[in-house]
Structures are given as C-alpha cells and as structure tokens.
Amino acid sequence: MTSPLRVVVADDQTLARTGFRMILMADGIDVVAEAADGAEAVEAVRRTRPDVVLMDIRMPELDGLEATRRILTGASDPPRVIILTTFDLDDLVYAALSAGASGFLLKDVTPEHLVSAVRLVRSGDALLAPAITRRLVERHARRSPETAALPRDLAPLTPRELEVLRLLAQGLSNTELAAHLHLAEATVKTHVARILAKLGLRDRVQAVVTAYETGLVTPGIVARST
Predict the structure, then answer these.
(1) Which helix (H) or strand (E) holds 87?
(2) Taking every annotated instance into account, which residue ranges of this chain make up the domain Response regulatory (predicted)?
(3) 3-state secondary structure of 164
(4) What is the pTM of this model?
(5) What ranges make up the beta strands (E) of the chain?
(6) φ and ψ of 112, to 5 deg
(7) CB-neighbour burial class of residue 215 (10 A; exposed 0-12, middle 13-18, buried 19+)
(8) What SS3 class is residue 73?
(9) pLDDT tens per residue across span 167-204
(10) CA geometry: angle at 149 spanning 145 and 151, to 5°?
C-alpha cells in the first residue's frame, strides 16, 4: 500500500493555511505541519520530513525564497517545493525556481488543481507546463544572475540531447517533441531523463531555466514544425 502523501503548508495568513489544509485532508492528503513564516517552515520540514511543501513566497521573518534554499540546499532527499504566488508573477518566483522549487501555484488555485498539483510533484514531475515556465523565464532571465544556482556547462549533453533541451525550453510537451523530432514518445522521455541526470537537475522546470540561463535559448524564439 502506498504511504499517505505528507505535506507542510507555509503561509503567513491563518485563513489561507486553514483552507489549504482542509482541501488537502478532504482528499486523503496528510498535512503534517503548518508554518506562519519561512523559519517555521524550515523547522517543520526538518521535524516532519514531508513529501511536498506549499510555500508562500512572501512571509515575515524569513521569506519563502530563502526558506526554499535552506530546505533544498545540500539535502539528500529533500521534499518537493511548490511556490504560492499572486497573479503578477512575483520577481522572487524565478529565483525560487532557480533554487530548486518544482513549480508554482497562483493563490486563487481551485481545490481540484491544488490537489492534483501536490500529487503531481510528489510523483516526480514538474508542476508547470513548459509554456508557462517559458513565460516566467522570459520575463526574468538574466535580470538577477546572482540568484542562479543551476549548472551552466552543457558539455555533457549529446547533440540530440541539446536539441531536445532547446525544444523543451520553447514549450513543447513530450508528445510535441516526439512529433517534431520524429521519435517515439518513450524515446523522448528517455532523452529528457538523461538530460536531467547529466546536468544534476530535479525536473523539467530547472531544465527550462538552465536552457535560458546558459543562452541555449533566448526569449522570443519559437519552435517550428518540421
């Protein structure tokens, strides 16, 4: 039997935490701790070892960005972190993705989307569709180089893997990549997995960020059908 999914909810608004907890627990997800600021979130993760953290980006004492860094840096088996943000795509979200967060949710997310997002990242996938990630990265790429925490050397990748990464960063799904490259979807998945492994990346979100930060892809380029 699969063990229950364990979540820490970090938000400085009590009503927000309560709402998230009720939604998750109604779907059988175990909320093992709540935190009102980043410092509490770091301690809660250390104490409870959750699978996923819902992390508000702006909190007192210690913000969600620094809390994410402390949770993920050097951890042997860190949880997945989902950043909670507002519609205007907070500048800190990009830095959080660079630091290792697995994606973000808008704070007006529907209950169904919240539950599916938490389950998705627990399974090892990235929360964001590549096209959404691209929009975020295009807005912030190269604005804050001091926040970049990803590998910049793409030398380990083969020419085919570089091509896959370039297209992935332009917003193509695995199905679209397969059609574009005339490959089986299973082969595309293998290429993506190898790219992540070679570059030491957690998921597709970090792969997209890396593609932009290394200059492999520049804002405005759109993949063309072949």
Answers:
(1) none
(2) 6-122
(3) helix
(4) 0.70
(5) 6-10, 30-35, 52-56, 80-85, 103-106
(6) -65, -40
(7) exposed
(8) coil
(9) 888 777 788 889 999 999 899 999 999 999 999 887 78
(10) 105
* Other residues' Cβ atoms within 10 Å of the Cβ of residue 62: 17
- Domains defined for the chain, CATH in brackets: 6-127 (3.40.50.2300), 151-213 (1.10.10.10)
Strands of 57-195, DSSP E: 80-85, 103-106
Tokens of 188: 């595309």
Instruction: Kindly tell me if the per-residue pLDDT of 144 is higher than 70.
Output: no
- Please give the C-alpha separations between residue 59 and each of 64, 67, 118, 197, 215, in angstroms, as whole numbers: 6, 10, 21, 33, 33
As given in the structure block, the two tokens for residue 225 are 């059908």
- Per-residue exposure over 64-96, b if at least 16 CB sit within 10 Å of its own CB, e if not: bbbbbbbbbeeeeebbbbbbbbeeebbebbbbb
